[in-house]
Write a structure and sequence with these properties.
With about 200 residues, the protein is of the alpha/beta class. Helices cover about 50% and strands about 10% of the residues.
Amino acid sequence: MNETMKRIVVIDDHPLVVKMLSNVLNTEYELVGESGDGEEGLRFVQTLKPDMVILDLELPKLDGLSLIRTIRAKQRHTRLLVLTAKPEQVMANHTRIAGANGYVSKNRGIEELRSVVKAVLLGYDCFPAGSCEGGRDAALNGLSPRELEVLRHLARGMSNKSIAARLSLSDKTVSTYKTRVLDKLGVSSLAALIEYATLNNLVD
């Protein structure tokens, strides 16, 4: 299995939906857990710490909104995508407020679902009021000014040594900042960091 493949947990009590998601996503992502109820799903998320959770709103034992709030309070880097049959105009904003990163109706097509999954994993928030919002991922708010500065230079292709010289820092200090940035943004490689910075409009 590709070590950089994003890991997803699916929480939905409809076996056909789970099977559909497995068929649609398993070539690009690693589905590491499937659950049919909110309490078990939460345990999976806490144990497996996936990159993304795809969940329904109507779940036995623990409802979707409560599940979103609980996961968001503990794991702020995990991306949360709601996949539900509930009316978009009624529930989408509630899920956003609870802490979800995206909302897709089960009535939408497979290609739209696939594109939203990709966008949300890349740091976009995708809700049905419009296209995926570019803007900036909320995780950037967790970076210090210096970390953000190092991120910008890395995204422009500068080496640690060049960044150290520009910012009057040691190579070791720049390396420490880089490690912190990767950890805080939940990305695992320099290539992914550059893509993340580009999507979040950090590169001139």
